[in-house]
Amino acid sequence: MSVPLLYESHCHTPLCKHAYGDPIEYAAQAEKRGLKGIIFTCHCPLPDGISASVRMSPEEYETYVALVAEARRQFAGRVDVRLGLESDYFPGTEKWLEHLHAKVPLHHVLGSVHMQVPEYKARYFHGDWFEYQKTYFNHLAESAETGIFDTLAHPDLVKNEAPRDWVWTRIEPFVQRALDRIAATGVAMELNTSGRQKTIPEFNPNPSMLRLMSERGIPVVLGADAHVPQRVAEGYEAALQSLLAADYTEISFFLDRRRQTVLIADALQSLRKPVPA
């Protein structure tokens, strides 16, 4: 029997108002898939009601910590359940996030630029989708440079905001500049398998961007961005193969906010096949 090696490094709870299922159900799915552990990274609270409809409120943060702690208690010795957070990079909230991250020990902090939220769009979209894409990648690099995130989540998410205006050859030079800046920080980036469920049905990032990341030695963390328990570790086999195709040999995850690595070949052998519903 194979030894569990991988973690689900990106999953949510109902506190974000658009995910379903108790953390215990997510942990149970992690066990079925042969994962060593699961790190909950629900959407962080933000000040001033920013995108409050899709995240926990500041008052619910202790509830979130308690929910994950209970799942950890119930799965002790079976699945390593850890507490993390998906924190938005919304310029001006850095001090808020630093304080939030220091409240309780976290294992993995995902930095996200959610360009689709109304407050971000109102501030940065001025009618030109290409300029908006460039702003997004500039902010992605800025988020790494803050030093407050471990990994950058779904790093080409912006392509789904206006897919008809997404032209890779046009945006690629700006992506390369952003990746040069990110590589200099040592921050990891995510291969997010939920991209196959979006308007442009491919992983985030796309294969071309993944190759650029590999050329720069940027570590990759794997996440399914599960908003329902059944999606824990979804697409991991295909994602690991795509990493091999981009010349990666290791996959990363974070514990105690320190990067750990596993050989991709070993990770592939460790997974159990999904059980049909």
Summarize this, please?
By secondary structure, the chain is an alpha/beta fold. Helices cover 37% and strands 15% of the residues.
Which structural class best describes the helix and strand composition?
alpha/beta
Average pLDDT works out at 97
Number of helices: 9
Helicity level, as a percent range?
25-40%
- As for the number of domains, it is 1
Strand content: 5-15%
Provide the CATH superfamily.
Answer: Metal-dependent hydrolases
Question: What fold name stands as the CATH topology?
Answer: TIM Barrel
Tell me the CATH architecture: Alpha-Beta Barrel
Task: Write up this protein.
- The model has no long low-confidence stretch (mean pLDDT 97).
- The protein contains nine helices and ten strands.
- It has helices at 23-32, 61-74, 94-103, 118-124, 129-146, 168-185, 207-215, 236-245, 264-270, and strands at 7-8, 37-40, 80-83, 85-88, 109-112, 151-152, 188-192, 220-223, 250-255, 258-263.
- The protein starts with 6 loop residues before the first strand and ends in a 7-residue tail after the last helix.
- The strands form three sheets. It has a five-stranded parallel beta sheet with strand order 4-5-6-7-8, with helices on one face. Strands 1-2-3 form a three-stranded parallel beta sheet.
- Helix 5 packs parallel to helix 6.
- It is of the alpha/beta class.
- It has one domain: TIM Barrel, CATH 3.20.20.140.
Please tag this protein with its features.
277 residues; alpha/beta; TIM Barrel; 5-stranded parallel sheet; 3-stranded parallel sheet; 37% helix
Give me the secondary-structure topology.
Elements: E1 7-8, H1 23-32, E2 37-40, H2 61-74, E3 80-83, E4 85-88, H3 94-103, E5 109-112, H4 118-124, H5 129-146, E6 151-152, H6 168-185, E7 188-192, H7 207-215, E8 220-223, H8 236-245, E9 250-255, E10 258-263, H9 264-270
Parallel strand pairs: 1-2, 2-3, 4-5, 5-6, 6-7, 7-8
Antiparallel strand pairs: 9-10
Helix pairs in contact: 5-6
